[in-house]
């Protein structure tokens, strides 16, 4: 029904993504040794978010896909944020 | 809709044409129609088990005090009744059976997008159901937590919670994969000319459902694994004695389990939307409103979960926010009901069994929906929370809604599935017994619930006796109706069904009954000015 377009990512890109992800993993472990008190969870989630972004963009080919796929991913993330916010409506005011 | 009627030389999908014959041919088939039927047989078996457990509960509750078994057995029976009915019957229910059988036929596709993944989903379903059932007979006795597995009790009880939870986890994966398959199928495999807003409304409802399956189910999956981790590794997620928060469990559980109600009910609404125009010979009223209301129910329904938790101790702010959202979700549901009724107005109505069940659905769903509003309001909820009133409301939605739509769908697509008709008179009798029995079983629960009868109680005060006894006899009528339906459908072969026995306009009625293996000899097409419901 729709014309298929195939994008082949070069090995070099995959290698760079792998190195970046491993580096962030090392950073994740390293920051656990530093006492950041209230910021600890925030930093861990920030690093995890950056890693997820890289995985989605390159490994899952979002960079090369049509706008529709990006819209879907945006909707999913938007729903996720709303779920967190509504849950916080309980925790913040309990 | 373009006529592509061909009397196909190819054999029907019911004839074994592949490498294997007999049972093996079915168990290894990737044909969406066979997989749909396999789901149907499995679901009917599980439904029968759930019904037997329900009758056992009603027998015990016939008189106050202990009658035939003790309180611990009662706890186990209502837990497994819930687990079986929710996770193996109503959640997969309509989407797995009729989504599989009818969706590709209705959109003009030869199969779903990923046929092997579809078969894999079925086997995950069987595996998950087997684990959940086995939990009854392993370890320290059947789980006694209720189907909701509320923490901290589910962390502390010595009964066999882990196996039941793991079974539900595996069933969730099956649901995710089916949803994913349907989304891709509808995006990529619609017939030429069939834009999204020319797609029949049952596929539309499956589309909204599939998104909930894909987005919400992983949350309950991880939540159930957290229970296992907490039991085995003593990590304090939910148990206060380990530093956890039990209300967090309720949030995580209901973030999935409320949208799960829409996984159940949206396909049911889709079935009704197919049946009403066919038997009223009228174009569906408000096509776009119904299509968009499915998406609206799916999206707003995602954010009403905490109305199950008003008495849990969560914040007042959260309570009124979720109460407001709960009232909002009633709007798209009401849009559908108004459109169904308006479609029937001035229609040439033919009262056949699928239509009767569709009317039954609307009646029961309205009672379930309206009583849902009193549960969604903060003040009235406090009064009836955890009473038999909730049991009645829930069953009016899930059984009166999903169950009756399931029966309607069987009677509607049965001639297409098997190429045979059934005895209409017997089918009508099954409706009479099911409808009467259903109301006699569950309506008294509203009344005794309002009077203060708690849910999930083994024993009760004498003033509730008459209500429980009415419910018992209603249950007996319901079982009789179900048996009549099984006899009507499966006891002997009926007359050969024509290709289009009901005068339907969607694609599946343009091909032979039963359909050939690859569905369409010539791919169907929708013209520029054609739609799925071109009656008048």
Mind sketching the topology for me?
The complex is a heterodimer of chains A (94) and B (536).
Chain A: H1 11-31, H2 39-59, H3 67-91
Helix pairs in contact in A: 1-2
Chain B: H1 22-27, H2 32-60, H3 71-90, H4 93-107, H5 115-134, H6 153-156, H7 161-188, H8 201-233, H9 246-280, H10 287-300, H11 316-344, H12 353-376, H13 378-384, H14 388-418, H15 424-451, H16 465-490
Helix pairs in contact in B: 2-3, 2-4, 2-5, 2-16, 3-5, 4-7, 4-8, 4-9, 4-14, 5-7, 7-8, 8-9, 8-10, 9-11, 9-12, 9-14, 10-11, 11-12, 12-14, 12-15, 14-15, 15-16
Please describe what this structure looks like:
- The complex is a heterodimer of chains A (94) and B (536).
- Chain A is mostly helical and 94 residues long.
- Chain A has 3 helices and no strands.
- Chain A folds into 2 domains: 9-60; 65-94.
- The longest helix of chain A is centred in the C-terminal third of the chain and has 25 residues, at 67-91.
- The mean pLDDT of chain A is 87.
- Chain B is an all-alpha fold and 536 residues long.
- Chain B has a single domain (31-510), classed as Up-down Bundle (Cytochrome C Oxidase, Chain A), CATH 1.20.210.
- The chains are: A mainly alpha (94), B mainly alpha (536).
Describe the structure in brief.
With 94 residues, chain A is mainly α. Helix content of chain A is 71%, strand content 0%. Chain B has 536 residues and is mostly helical.
Structural class of chain A, by secondary structure, is mainly alpha
Q: Could you state the order of secondary-structure elements of chain A as H and E?
A: HHH
Oligomer: heterodimer
Q: How many structural domains can be distinguished in the coordinates of chain B?
A: 1
* Main sheet record of chain B: none
């Amino acid at each position: 029904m729709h014309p298929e377009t195939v994008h082949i990512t070069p090995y070099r890109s995959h290698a760079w993504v792998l190195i970046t992800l491993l580096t962030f993993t090392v950073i994740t472990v390293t920051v656990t040794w530093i006492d950041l008190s209230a910021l600890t969870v925030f930093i861990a989630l920030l690093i995890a978010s950056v890693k997820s972004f890289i995985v989605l963009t390159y490994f899952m080919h979002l960079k090369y896909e049509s706008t529709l796929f990006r819209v879907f991913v945006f909707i999913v993330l938007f729903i996720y944020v709303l779920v967190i916010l509504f849950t916080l409506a309980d925790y913040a005011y309990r | 809709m373009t006529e592509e009627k061909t009397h196909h030389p190819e054999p029907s999908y019911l004839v074994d044409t592949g490498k294997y014959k007999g049972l093996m041919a079915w168990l290894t088939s990737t044909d969406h129609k066979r997989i749909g039927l396999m789901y149907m047989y499995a679901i009917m078996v599980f439904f029968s088990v759930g019904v037997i457990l329900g009758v056992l509960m009603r027998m015990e509750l016939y008189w106050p005090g202990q009658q035939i078994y003790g309180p611990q057995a009662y706890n186990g029976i209502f837990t497994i009744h819930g687990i079986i009915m929710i996770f193996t019957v109503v959640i997969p229910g309509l989407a797995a059976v009729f989504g599989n059988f009818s969706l590709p036929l209705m959109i003009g596709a030869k199969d779903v997008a990923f046929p092997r993944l579809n078969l894999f989903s079925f086997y995950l379903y069987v595996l998950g159901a087997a684990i959940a059932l086995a939990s009854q007979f392993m370890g320290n006795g059947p789980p006694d937590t209720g189907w909701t597995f509320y923490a901290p009790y589910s962390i502390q009880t010595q009964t066999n919670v882990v196996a039941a939870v793991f079974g539900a986890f595996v069933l969730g994966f099956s649901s995710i994969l089916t949803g994913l398959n349907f989304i891709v199928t509808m995006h990529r495999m619609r017939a030429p000319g069939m834009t999204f807003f020319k797609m029949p409304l049952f596929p539309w409802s499956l589309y909204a459902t599939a998104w909930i399956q894909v987005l919400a189910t992983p949350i309950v999956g991880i939540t159930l694994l957290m229970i296992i981790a907490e039991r085995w590794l003593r990590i304090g997620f939910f148990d206060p004695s380990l530093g956890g928060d039990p209300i967090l469990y309720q949030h995580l559980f209901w973030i999935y389990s409320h949208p799960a109600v829409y996984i159940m009910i949206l396909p049911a609404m889709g079935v009704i939307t197919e049946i009403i125009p066919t038997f009223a010979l009228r174009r569906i009223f408000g096509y776009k409103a119904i299509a968009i209301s499915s998406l609206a129910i799916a999206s707003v329904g995602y954010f009403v979960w905490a109305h199950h938790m008003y008495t849990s101790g969560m914040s007042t702010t959260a309570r009124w926010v979720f109460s407001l959202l709960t009232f909002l979700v009633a709007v798209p549901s009401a849009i559908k009901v108004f459109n169904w009724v308006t479609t029937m107005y001035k229609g040439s109505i033919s009262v056949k069994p699928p239509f009767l069940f569709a009317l039954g659905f609307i009646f029961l769903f309205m009672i379930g929906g309206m009583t849902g509003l009193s549960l969604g309001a903060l003040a009235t909820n406090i009064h009836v929370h955890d009473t038999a009133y909730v049991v009645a409301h829930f069953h009016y939605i899930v059984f009166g809604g999903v169950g009756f739509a399931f029966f309607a769908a069987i009677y509607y697509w049965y001639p297409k599935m098997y190429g045979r008709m059934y005895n209409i008179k017997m089918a009508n009798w099954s409706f009479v017994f099911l409808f009467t029995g259903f109301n006699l079983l569950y309506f008294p629960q509203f009344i005794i619930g309002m009077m203060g009868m708690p849910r999930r109680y083994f024993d009760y005060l004498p003033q509730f006796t008459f209500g429980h006894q009415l419910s018992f006899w209603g249950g007996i009528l319901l079982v009789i109706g179900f048996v009549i339906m099984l006899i009507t459908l499966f006891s002997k072969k009926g007359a050969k069904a024509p290709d289009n026995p009901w005068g339907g306009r969607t694609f599946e009625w343009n091909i032979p009954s039963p359909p050939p293996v690859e569905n369409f000899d010539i791919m169907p097409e929708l013209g520029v000015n054609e739609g799925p419901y071109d009656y008048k």
